[in-house]
Amino acid sequence: MRFDVLTLFPEMFPGYLSQSLLNLAIERGLVSVEVHNIRDWAKGKHKNVDDRPFGGGPGMVLSPEPVVECVEAVQQMDSSPGRVIMLTPSGRRFDQRVAEEYSNEQRLVLLCGRYEGFDQRVVDILQPDELSIGDFVLNGGEVAAMVVVDAVVRLVPGVLGDEQSNKQDSFSSENRLLEFAQYTRPREYRGHAVPEVLLSGNHPEIAEWRKQNSLERTRQRRADLLPGNGDKPSDNPGNSADGN
Question: Which CDD domains match (predicted)?
């Protein structure tokens, strides 16, 4: 699977891409992540990518020319067309269901916002998926793009050592509940002991304990996820900053 990240701050990504599970997936050829500087498609001596908004108001708006031309050029860099995703507060809410949807794509093109956001003509011309990761303020879409990459990469076949891991994750399509509590050695720490059932070796009883623990944790922390309480829609627009 290929990810193309379009940003004004490509220097934010090398450290992220060189760490942990993502780095291993890249080294094994399961995924590739290419980072592109939108400013490379800007015209003029100063390579300006933004300007003041028509009608007045604070801040600067990303101009359509460098953004659209960057996306079009990047699309030509691979034979497989990429699904364009714009990180913006106007988008639908990102969640595990959306991550699972995106994991079925061969290629994702992630467009990172900055300043007061994109000129509307970027949306009109490119018709991207508009996506928000939550109702909070970020300086730009780079961190949001990393969130999307992280969530989707886990679902690419072969990335996880145990293919059952993502099926037990909180919010997965096969679960929809919060994950049950996990324990490891030592058996007791500062007066807190591992539940005896997990030490019993009785796998049906362990499975039942985990099921009930998952239900209870969900009931206490996210009752909206339980059947009959109504799932929180994944397409609710957020009220976050333009980088989200």
Answer: TrmD-like (cd18080)
